[in-house]
Design brief:
The protein is an alpha+beta fold. The protein is 23% helix and 31% strand. Strands 1, 2, 3, 4, 5, 6, 7 and 8 form an eight-stranded mixed β-sheet that branches. Residues 9-162 form the N-acetyltransferase domain. This is N-acetyltransferase domain-containing protein.
Length: 162
């Protein structure tokens, strides 16, 4: 008889300084470019755990709105709003709900702090993903000076809690 061990996916919040190396490595694995966790961001990491191993398969960095700020400023990334800054999921795990689970957990944390809108600047490739989760496009795409092709055009998107 052969018994297959089921893999379990867990999501954990990790401190920025403690997870920087893992965050940078996964960003390099996913898009061939190294990205760091922005200052004042929180990080959720997704792991697939089997009987003998735990593999880092996804991550999201985000910033909770500054509730001391009473009115929004002009820029899209103003601290008045919640912000998702990065979302990476290993290619082999796309289509398994890992990204959706990371975003939903992030939204739960944000909603617990305030009902302010959530903003993300999405790569073109991820616009449909965010739309499926309830994010709406805001304005025209912005051409990025970033050298990575994946991020050539960025799309401002917003999610409003209902």
């Amino acid at each position: 008889l052969c018994f297959l061990s089921a893999a379990v996916v867990t999501i954990k919040e990790e401190g920025r300084s403690r997870c920087r190396h893992k965050f940078r490595q996964l960003s390099r694995d996913v898009c061939r470019e190294v990205f760091d966790v922005p200052e004042d961001n929180r990080v959720l990491m997704a792991y697939e755990k089997t009987q003998h191993t735990e593999t880092h398969i996804g991550e999201i960095s985000f910033q909770v709105a500054d509730t001391n700020k009473q009115t929004p400023g002009i820029p899209f990334d103003d601290d008045y709003y919640h912000q998702i800054t990065f979302l990476f999921v290993k290619q082999d795990f796309h289509g398994r709900g890992i990204g959706k689970d990371l975003v939903e957990k992030c939204l739960q944390i944000m909603r617990a702090c305030s009902q302010r809108p959530v903003r993300v600047q999405s790569a073109e490739k991820a616009v449909g993903f965010f739309q499926k989760l309830g994010f709406e496009l805001q304005g025209e795409p912005i051409e990025s000076a970033c050298g990575v092709r994946l991020f050539r055009f960025m799309y401002n998107m917003e999610y409003k809690f209902s």
